[in-house]
Structures are given as structure tokens and as C-alpha cells.
């Protein structure tokens, strides 16, 4: 199948994050996955948190400028259904990101940085989830909504 070109995929959402990496789908490149203007605004808000995470992680633990690697950001309803995502997923509105980690140690450091930043800045987040699939792969799911954030922290296993 021919993959769909992501419009404005090189558009910056923040200094280090582009629209293309927040909308890519490696598993289903054929699925239409173009976010609305509202979802793009949500992705920009989320990328503000990711910039803090990137800077603080690199300042404290990095050897040079290590990027934050995104597994999944915005998902269209079609893509979310294809990958078996939750019906009410924050990914559908551009409010969530799944971050690839090198192991549990890096995941815990990422989570700690985000929790500390939430407390220091007095900003709320919706979800900070440590997720693991049946094959043992782990990642950090992080979500920030424009309002009604729950500060949900949990370990989720498929």
C-alpha cells in the first residue's frame, strides 16, 4: 500500500518536536492521520512539557543532546481503531504521547522529571502511565488536557 503523506510534517510544534513525529504511524502508514487545528494546539501544549523533560533529562543524565523518542502521539479515530486503542484515548485529541524508553531506569527518571515539573510549575497533567505489552515492551504514556486534568498515575499491563 502507498503511505499517506502527512501535510506540514516538518512544521515545528516546539523547538525540538515536529508535527510529523507526533502523527507518524509505523504500523499503519496507509491510515489517514492528519490532526485538526484543535489537536495541533493540544500537541503544542504537550510538546511544552516534552521540552522540559528533554532539557532536564539531558542536563542531569544526558551525554550530549539525547532526543525524546516518540512511539505515538496524535491518532485519528481510524488509526486508533486499527491499533486497538481505547475509545476515549487522549491520543484522539492530541493530548497524549507514548515515549520510547531504553529501560525501566530511564522510564522512572522521565516520570520523576515530569512529576517534579508538575509540582514546581503548579500545572496539572491528565495521565502518567507506565505501560507494558504482552511481549514485555515498556513505554511512558503522558497526557495533558486543556482542562479537567486528573493527575492519574498508574502501571498498566496489557
CATH top level assignment: Alpha Beta
Tell me the structural class.
Answer: alpha+beta
Rg (CA only): 15 Å
Question: What string gives the helices and strands in order?
Answer: HHEHEHEEE
The helicity comes to 25-40%
The mean pLDDT is: 93
> What does the largest sheet look like?
5 strands, mixed
Name the overall outline. Answer: globular
Largest sheet, order of strands side by side? 1-2-4-3-5
Total number of strands:
5
The CA-CA distance between the termini, in Å, is 29 Å
List segments where confidence is low: pLDDT < 50 over at least 5 consecutive residues. Answer: none
β-strand percent reads 15-25%
What is the CATH topology classification name? Muramoyl-pentapeptide Carboxypeptidase, domain 2
- Named at the architecture level, the CATH assignment is 2-Layer Sandwich
SS field, number of helical segments: 4
Total count of domains: 1
Q: How would the blueprint of this fold be written?
A:
Layout: H1 19-23, H2 37-60, E1 69-72, H3 77-82, E2 96-100, H4 104-121, E3 127-132, E4 138-143, E5 152-157
Parallel strand pairs: 3-5
Antiparallel strand pairs: 1-2, 2-4, 3-4
Description:
By secondary structure, this protein is α+β, with helices and mostly antiparallel strands. The chain has one domain: Muramoyl-pentapeptide Carboxypeptidase, domain 2 (2-Layer Sandwich). Strands 1-2-4-3-5 form a five-stranded mixed sheet. β3 and β4 form a beta hairpin. α2 crosses α4. The longest helix is centred in the first third of the chain and has 24 residues.
Amino acid at each position: 500500500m502507498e503511505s499517506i503523506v502527512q501535510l506540514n510534517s516538518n512544521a515545528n510544534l516546539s523547538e525540538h518536536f515536529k508535527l510529523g513525529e507526533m502523527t507518524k504511524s509505523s504500523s499503519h502508514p496507509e491510515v489517514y492521520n492528519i490532526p485538526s487545528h484543535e489537536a495541533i494546539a493540544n500537541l503544542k501544549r504537550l510538546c511544552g512539557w516534552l521540552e522540559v523533560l528533554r532539557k532536564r533529562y539531558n542536563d542531569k543524565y544526558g551525554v550530549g543532546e539525547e532526543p525524546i523518542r516518540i512511539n505515538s502521539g496524535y491518532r485519528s479515530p481510524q488509526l486508533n481503531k486499527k491499533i486497538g486503542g481505547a475509545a476515549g484515548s487522549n491520543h484522539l485529541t492530541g493530548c497524549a504521547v507514548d515515549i520510547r524508553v531504553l529501560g525501566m531506569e530511564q522510564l522512572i527518571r522521565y516520570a520523576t522529571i515530569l512529576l517534579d515539573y508538575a509540582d514546581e510549575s503548579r500545572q496539572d497533567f491528565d495521565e502518567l502511565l507506565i505501560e507494558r505489552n504482552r511481549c514485555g515492551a515498556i513505554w511512558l504514556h503522558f497526557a495533558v488536557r486543556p482542562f479537567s486534568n486528573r493527575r492519574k498515575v498508574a502501571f498498566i499491563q496489557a
